[in-house]
What we know:
The protein has 279 residues and is of the alpha/beta class. It contains 11 helices and 7 strands. It has a single domain, classed as 3-Layer(aba) Sandwich (Rossmann fold), CATH 3.40.50.150. The chain has a 7-stranded mixed β-sheet with strand order 3-2-1-4-5-7-6. Helix 1 (2-13) packs parallel to helix 5.
Amino acid sequence: MKALVREKYTAIAEQSQTQNATSCCGATSSCCGDEVYNIMADDYTKLKGYNPDADLGLGCGLPTEFAKIKEGDTVIDLGSGAGNDAFIARRFVGEKGKVIGIDFTEAMIAKARANAEKLGLNNVEFRLGDIDDMPVTSNFANVIVSNCVLNLVPNKHKVISEIFRVLKPGGHFSISDIVLEGALPVKWKEVAELYAGCVSGAIQKQVYLEIIEAAGFKNITLQKDKAIVIPDGILANYLSADEIAEYKNGNTKITSITVYAEKPAKDDRNCCEPGSGCC
Length: 279
């Protein structure tokens, strides 16, 4: 699954923004036919620090807008792509802060670094690595942001635990992601390409929030909850007319949420570092 995601997002990094905007969640998928759909992304263009070269239309929210980033903070952007959210975060942290983007696609890292060089930013860097095994020391960041990426990670528990490890005590995250209420049609789960398209990799909203709580986070808050309506032109590639009607009349909801949570200033769990076996 990781190989599939890497392949898809490498292709996205190497194509134009216009091409990305004509596909579902930015993925280079045939599922959108010839019509233009940008069904999940929110509009970044009015945010200070916005750089059009870094906007590939891959997000499903505006987590950086909600992230309570302060001047001088150290911010990590998970699944940083071409650097869109990292450059917005740089506007908040200023000269005294630092922003680190992490992505496991070499083509995305190369694109982000080129964008940072063009902007002349010396306190924004991009690191190649998995977000479920971050190349970052523990208790390092004040804030973590991520935009429509955790749904692409097979092991949600591991990446949420990594976020807890990397945040400083008292630090917090703001993450936008795709979640579900109700069950997806079985056919969708069988189509691997829809995983890279941000749909079939999503999990139940309540389970998503429970994983965050189980990792030790407090003050978990939904900052935004937006329904995602998939056009009939996409549905028709996977479902019959009767199946489309059943899906639309059922209780399944695909939503984009932005969730905020804090790492306690003091960890009372009597636990130890992830990987040691005691947690």
